[in-house]
Design goal:
This protein is of the alpha+beta class and 194 residues long. It contains 6 helices and 4 strands; from the N terminus they run βαββαβαααα.
Length: 194
């Protein structure tokens, strides 16, 4: 592990924010973190709601270290320039390790469910679009006192007999794609979380 100079003498990457052209930023080819279309759409909606709030991290040559999802969203929004901070003097090992650490360290946090429930409830009371928080319906339902476990009571239908199919999805993004595809084809679709 590289020894850092005295904390008082360090020039931190975030000490200076610059703007760079999106087209000049180079994604890290071995980035192990993936970004689904649904997640990019969430980031797009976040930027539309709050603007650009966190600079991306690049090396001196414009190689992306952190912020790959934000750059994909910027391209989708046709944003020409974005705020960046430059990690100057970092070794190749430091850059590669930070690509992993930036994503993993946030995953290691936990939620205080009581405070989270209060915050989500307050946002709901303020008629704020809580989907902008990034939480899925399945994550929010227990916090909001809603339950949809098991098979729902079928809706009233114009057909005398009713038949249903349950499609098991690998994750929420897959569930969203299947839902949109079936609903777009004119099928009556319900989301069931078990």
């Amino acid at each position: 592990m590289a020894k850092l100079p005295s904390i008082k003498k360090i020039q931190w990457p975030a000490d200076k924010v610059e703007k760079r052209k999106v087209k000049d930023l180079v994604p890290y080819a071995n980035n192990a973190r993936t970004h689904s279309k649904e997640q990019i759409d969430q980031i797009v909606r976040s930027i539309e709601e709050w603007g650009w709030t966190v600079p991306v991290l690049v090396d001196e040559d414009g190689g992306l270290i952190a912020g790959h999802g934000r750059i994909l969203a910027a391209k989708k929004l046709k944003i020409d320039e974005v705020p960046v901070v430059v990690a100057r003097g970092w070794s190749e090992a430091q850059k590669r390790a930070y690509v992993l650490a930036d994503n993993k360290l946030t995953e290691n946090g936990t939620w205080d469910n009581d405070l989270l429930q209060a915050e989500i409830g307050a946002l709901k009371d303020l008629n704020f679009d809580i989907s902008l928080t990034g939480f899925s319906l399945g994550e929010l339902e227990p916090l909001l006192g809603m339950t949809t476990s098991g098979i729902e009571t079928p809706p009233v239908s114009k057909y005398r007999e009713q038949y249903g199919v349950i499609v098991l999805c690998k994750d929420e993004a897959h569930q969203q794609r299947v839902y949109e595809e079936l609903a777009g084809s004119g099928h009556e679709v319900r989301v069931v979380v078990t």
